[in-house]
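A reminder from the course coordinator: this example appears on the midterm review sheet, so study it carefully.

Given structure:
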């Protein structure tokens, strides 16, 4: 290899020309490697961890690995025109996203830029995407329900405002449907919703947004979207960006619901980044700090103390499992961070029990204290009914003679399963939920054949709305059951008028 003298001198001249530029290695670095959404830069001696950096092509990056000789950077957005030798500058800030009321009704990317073609978002407020979670003294315990409008959840695994409830299940078990229904049900409940779609097909997200629009839910919802074609860093920051948008409302005393659909894909994006940054891989090739990835995110959702305005952020993180394996690395991590989990099972889903909630393996550790009194009363025995039904069901398959008590339990169980089914986008008010569960647990459905139950339900709601709205009103206003004699009387009247379909 020959060294050309003129090349060297040209280079030296070039360098000398730049001498006046006040090139400061503490504040400005030089890209030494770029590829796959990752860059390394020399210089930048003063850079802080997670600081926002600006490349000479206008793209931004976040400082990740601070090493003796260089800095590992994840690049947000375009990286194909960043070259080795380009400059990269410190900004002195950590990354921020626009926040505030103007974001509501919009679909944005993880940088907070609109992707819905509805024009610029006019807000001058921003918030850092990473911030400290509220401490012990800043919180209070969950005490107000977040009604999902889904009977099985509100009765068996109730969610309170400020709670973090994991939703976990295989692919195509109705996870996204559950999220959308919960958001749709927040209409008129004074809850701002944020739906963070991570690594989902653009067409799926488009459908979800259409569904939300159709039910008028975009009036109080922000959608943060990081598509599968975006570089991994965008998927990685999406939930933090969504949380920052939620915090703006929470710290102003409002109630927020945030859905992360789903964190498995975010963890995979983080694994990709970490491997490219050459961090040592651990179990399932995830880096050592993958627990912190999710714990620092979910800890930011809380019910704030009254001193801080009493706002809340309820988080529903989603995790996708493989073949129902909830003991894999990421699922167990997130189970241990959250206040309970709702387990969706593929077998139930395909057998037609939808939503496919496995009541035995689903728990809510704090939501019970936030249930309204009426719901607590009717749901009390439901879980036991269901558990003993599942137990007896396997016996009953042998077809041997069963005593009457067992028969009764089986028949109640079958009806319970049927009542807990719910079609898509048909969320219920809490008084209707209480009504049907009261009817179920007090034996009013025992004489109704199982195939008639769905019709029974619909007719029951109509009947009460037109004849006994005063009873429903008691539940609405006081949260407690109305006079039970009156309620039973009303149900008896309805049962007498209900026509059982002939086979
Ligand atoms: N309660 C329900 N009743 C009837 N159909 C339902 C119900 N819940 C979901 N579905 C249907 O099941 C299909 C899968 O649902 P969904 O997309 O919500 O599942 P997912 O778990 O989010 O899937 P993915 O793994 O692709 O994210 C959809 O076509 C949806 O319409
Ligand atoms: Mg989905």
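Designed residues:
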């Amino acid at each position: 290899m020959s060294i050309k003298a003129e090349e060297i001198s040209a280079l030296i001249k070039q360098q000398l020309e730049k001498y006046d530029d006040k090139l400061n290695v503490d504040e400005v670095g030089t890209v030494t490697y770029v590829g796959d959404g990752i860059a390394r830069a020399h210089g930048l001696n003063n850079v802080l961890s997670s600081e926002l950096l600006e490349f000479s092509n206008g793209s931004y990056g976040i400082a990740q690995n601070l090493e003796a000789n260089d800095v590992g950077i994840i690049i947000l957005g375009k990286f194909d025109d960043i070259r080795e030798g380009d400059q990269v500058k410190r900004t002195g800030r950590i990354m921020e996203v626009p926040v505030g009321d103007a974001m509501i009704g919009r679909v944005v990317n993880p940088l907070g830029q609109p992707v819905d073609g509805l024009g610029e978002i006019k807000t001058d407020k921003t918030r850092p995407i990473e911030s400290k979670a509220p401490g012990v003294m800043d919180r209070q315990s969950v005490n107000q329900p977040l009604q999902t409008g889904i009977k099985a959840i509100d009765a068996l695994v109730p969610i309170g405002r400020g709670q973090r409830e994991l939703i976990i299940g295989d692919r195509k078990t109705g996870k996204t449907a559950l999220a959308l229904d919960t958001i749709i049900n927040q209409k008129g409940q004074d809850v701002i919703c944020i739906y963070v779609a991570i690594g989902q097909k653009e067409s799926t997200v488009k459908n979800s947004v259409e569904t939300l629009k159709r039910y008028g839910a975009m009036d109080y919802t922000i959608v943060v979207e990081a598509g599968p074609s975006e570089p991994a860093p965008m998927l990685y920051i999406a939930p933090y960006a969504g949380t920052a948008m939620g915090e703006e409302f929470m710290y102003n005393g409002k109630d927020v619901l945030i859905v992360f659909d789903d964190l498995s894909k975010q963890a995979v994006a983080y694994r990709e980044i970490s491997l490219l940054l050459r961090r040592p891989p651990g179990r399932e090739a995830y880096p050592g700090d993958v627990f912190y990835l999710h714990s620092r995110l979910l800890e930011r959702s809380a019910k704030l103390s009254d001193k801080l305005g009493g706002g809340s952020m309820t988080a529903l993180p989603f995790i996708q499992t493989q073949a129902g394996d909830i003991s894999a690395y990421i699922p167990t991590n997130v189970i241990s961070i959250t206040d309970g989990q709702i387990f969706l099972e593929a077998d139930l889903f395909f057998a037609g029990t939808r939503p496919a909630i496995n009541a035995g393996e689903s728990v809510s550790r704090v939501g019970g204290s936030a249930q309204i009194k009426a719901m607590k009363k009717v749901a009390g025995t439901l879980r036991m009914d269901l558990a003993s039904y599942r137990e007896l069901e396997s016996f009953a398959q042998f077809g041997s003679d069963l005593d009457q008590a067992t028969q009764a339990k089986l028949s109640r169980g079958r009806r319970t399963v049927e009542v807990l089914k719910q079609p898509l986008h048909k969320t219920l008010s809490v008084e209707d939920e209480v009504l049907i569960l009261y009817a179920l647990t007090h034996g009013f459905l025992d004489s109704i054949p199982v195939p008639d139950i769905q019709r029974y339900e619909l007719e029951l709601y109509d009947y009460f709305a037109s004849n006994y709205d005063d009873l429903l009103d008691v539940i609405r206003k006081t949260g407690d059951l109305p006079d039970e004699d009156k309620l039973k009387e009303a149900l008896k009247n309805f049962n007498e008028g209900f026509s059982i379909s002939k086979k």
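The chain has a mean pLDDT of 93. Residues 171-177, 320, 354-355, 422-424 surround adenosine-5'-triphosphate (ligand 1) (CB under 6 Å).
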